[in-house]
Structures are given as C-alpha cells and as structure tokens.
Backbone:
C-alpha cells in the first residue's frame, strides 16, 4: 500500500458484477467451502469454471488495473484481489488491518470450532496460535514425531493395499469412498493415537457439522451435535497416546481450548485427503517428474521424502482445496489508486493465481521442483497452505504425513488409474480434477491414466 494521492474505489459495472457472480462466486459456493459437494465438483469440471475464473479475473485486471476491485451490489462489501503482490500484503498484514476472522469464516467455523485459533478474539488468539504451531511443529519439515507418523502411515497403507489385492482375481478398485475412509483413520491415528483408528463416530459428527457450515451464517448452528462432537474430541485428547499430535496441546478446559484446535486439524485433514488422492493421479501420469517422485518412494527408507512432499504441494497448487482465501479489513485501506472502506472482504481466488500463465511458466505443468529450488516461495500468489501470521500451522506436518502414506501405497505394487477420465498430460494439466470420479487399481489395465 502507498500513501500517495488516491481516490475512492469505483468498482465494477452492474454487468461486470453479474458476470463475476455467475462465473466466479456462485460456482465456488456450489462446490462447498467447508465440505465438497459431489454435484458441485462435477459441474465445475464439466463447465470449466476453474479455467473461467482465471480468464474472468485476468480480463478485469486488464480493464481496471492492479488494485483490489470492489463489486457493486447491495449487501456485503467485497473486493477481488487481482495482483499477486497484494496477496502478500493481505497475508503479511494479518490480523491488523486484515482480519482472518471475517463474517463468512466465523459463520462457517463456529459450527464446529467456536474457539478455534482463526476465529478467536485478539486477546486470546496469539496464545492459541502458538499452541497450534508448537504441536504441529511449524517450520520443521520433519516433525519430531515423524517416526510415529510413519508407523501409522505404513500400517494404514499396507492394510489398504492388502484389502484391494485380496478383493478377487483382478483386485479391488480404489474409489474416493474407500480412500477417504482409510485417510480419515490415518488422520485420527496421527492426532490421537492408534486407538482412534476405529472412531468413525467422531468423523461422522464433524462431517454433519461441516455440511451445515457450507452455508456459513445462513444456517443455524446445531448446538446438540456440536456439543456431542466436541465432547468426543475432549475424551480422545484425554486418551491421547505418546507421540500423537493432541498430546502436545494443553488439556481440555485450558485457555487453549484444545478441542477446538483439534477440530480444525480433523477438518483440515479432509482437504489433505482430497489433495493426496489427486496426487495419486499425478503419480500415475507419464513424465520425468512423476518417475522421480515414484522412485523416491520406492527406494528411500527414511522419513525425509522431499519429492513426495512436493508432489502433495503441487496437487494443492494445481487443484486448490482452499478455493478462496478471505481477509476482512478492520479500517479504511489505501492502495495504489484506490481507497477501500473498512469492513470489506478481500477475496483471493486461489486458482487465478496458481494458474496464471502470464506470470508462471509452469502454471499448467506438474513441476514439483518449484518446491525444492525456491521458485514457489518467491511467488506471493502461490498459497497452497496460505502464509503469513495466519497461514496454516500444519503446512509442514501435512506434506510429511502424506508423503509417508504415498510411499506405503507406492510400495504396494504397480498402481493404475482405471476410471474413464482422460490421461493427465504433465505439461497440459486440466484446470479441474474431480476427485470423486478418480479410480485406481493394483490389477488390470489402465484406461484413464497411467501406471505407477
């Protein structure tokens, strides 16, 4: 932001606003911000909405310039972020003057974590944030409990492989339902310990709450289900085994409100499951990048798997699991040529920045080395796990956990994509990839994709 002369924001015309609502915002809402809707994902893929978001916002930037662009319509004040440099400003200057706890986010997350760090009041938020960072070991690519996590990943991975291979002469098909059930069990083990692998009830309660959270403040909180869910989380925290993430938090009843922080971890692990499943599609694609990542999984026995961690990050860059990042201004903000009023929700559409071919030579390519050679870190618009003071505190833990699980699946034998989708071309990847439609098998002939 600059302190030079400026003018009040002009915003979009009525026609432009209608275009943004129909081609950018409505498809995003239809997919589900908190839990994905299969119909919404299918429509996004069929209609090319992710590609259209990129073209729509690029055209707006060409007409209106780099400043965040207010939308003209009654009700909520919204501004679209159009320049990557402004993403840096928004995330760096959080929580003042850009709060991560805007109306939409508070309305959504309060359905299942009313005292979560992201939506906590300023007087308690830093303490809760610090507790998250400590337990998740933010800033450490290899978590102190990496070997415990690896043991969980290996056990769940081997069990899944055995079940698929034992499902008849041609082997079972790995679909999203089967994969997500295994990944949910892995998440509960990592968070609480081995005893939680069978605790499907906790995950089911959370999923019911998240379905309501898709409507944010438009849906009333189901306090009965929320109470039952948080009580189960408290009980599991009390039973947390040594080496489990929850063992590194305070006890239920403390100021950290650990049950709410853990609720967010379980919620975030669902997005990790989607990204991991899509990463399997990348690993079955042709090309040197996929081959190198597969080779790492097959040959490296330690817990440090940088290419597989990068594969997970590429999955999230190519097909973001956080569709939009929101920051709400607490005061009037001045940009290059505009002043934007307080109470404005600034929207960062992830796919627009992640797939900006005018800025990124690798926009539509599977290029995991951008995460190992520093290129991704120097691009402020690339934010698979966000960054800044409110960035995801699990941005090191999740790639580690996923890399260890992917290794277990790779070691199960040759894996094929067997769905009807077109093969992934490593330098011309589609803007959307519906994870509900992906299918894999350790037996049979590949149809839609390649082979590990």
Residues:
């Amino acid at each position: 932001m600059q302190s030079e002369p400026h003018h009040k924001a002009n915003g979009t015309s009525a026609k432009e606003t209608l275009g943004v609502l129909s081609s950018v915002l409505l498809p995003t809402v239809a997919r589900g911000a908190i839990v994905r809707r299969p119909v919404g994902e299918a429509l996004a893929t069929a209609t090319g909405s992710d590609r259209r978001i990129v073209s729509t916002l690029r055209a707006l930037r060409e007409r209106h310039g780099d400043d965040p662009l207010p939308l003209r319509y009654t009700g909520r004040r919204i501004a679209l972020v159009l320049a990557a440099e402004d993403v840096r400003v928004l995330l760096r200057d959080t929580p003042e003057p850009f709060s991560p706890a805007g109306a939409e986010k508070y309305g959504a997350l309060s359905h299942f974590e009313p005292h979560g760090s992201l939506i906590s009041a300023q007087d308690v938020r830093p303490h809760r944030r610090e507790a998250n960072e400590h337990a998740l070991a933010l800033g450490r690519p290899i978590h102190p409990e990496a070997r415990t996590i690896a043991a969980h990943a290996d056990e769940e991975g081997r069990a899944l492989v055995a079940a698929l291979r034992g499902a008849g002469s041609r082997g079972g098909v790995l679909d999203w339902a089967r994969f997500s059930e295994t990944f949910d069990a892995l998440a509960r083990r990592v968070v609480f310990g081995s005893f939680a692998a069978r605790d499907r009830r906790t995950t089911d309660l959370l999923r019911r709450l998240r379905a309501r959270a898709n409507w944010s403040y438009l849906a009333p909180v189901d306090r009965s289900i929320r109470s039952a869910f948080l009580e189960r989380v408290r009980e599991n925290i009390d039973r947390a085994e040594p080496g489990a993430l929850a063992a590194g938090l305070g006890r239920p009843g403390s100021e950290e409100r650990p049950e709410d922080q853990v609720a967010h971890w379980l919620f975030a692990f669902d997005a990790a499951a989607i990204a991991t499943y899509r990463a399997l599609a990348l690993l079955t694609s042709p090309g040197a990048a996929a081959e190198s990542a597969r080779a790492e999984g097959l040959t490296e026995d330690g817990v440090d798997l940088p290419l597989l961690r990068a594969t997970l990050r590429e999955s999230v860059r190519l097909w973001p699991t956080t569709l939009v990042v929101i920051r709400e201004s607490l005061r009037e903000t001045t940009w290059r040529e505009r002043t934007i009023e307080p109470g404005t929700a600034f929207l960062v559409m992830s796919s627009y920045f992640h797939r900006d071919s005018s800025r990124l030579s690798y926009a539509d390519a599977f290029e995991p080395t951008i995460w190992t050679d520093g290129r991704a870190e120097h691009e402020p618009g690339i934010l698979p796990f966000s960054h800044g003071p409110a960035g995801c505190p699990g941005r090191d833990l999740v790639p580690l956990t996923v890399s260890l699980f992917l290794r277990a699946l790779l070691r199960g034998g040759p894996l094929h994509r067997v769905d009807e989708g077109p093969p992934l071309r490593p330098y011309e990847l589609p803007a959307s990839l519906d994870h509900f439609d992906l299918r894999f098998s350790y037996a049979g002939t590949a149809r839609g994709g390649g082979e590990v």
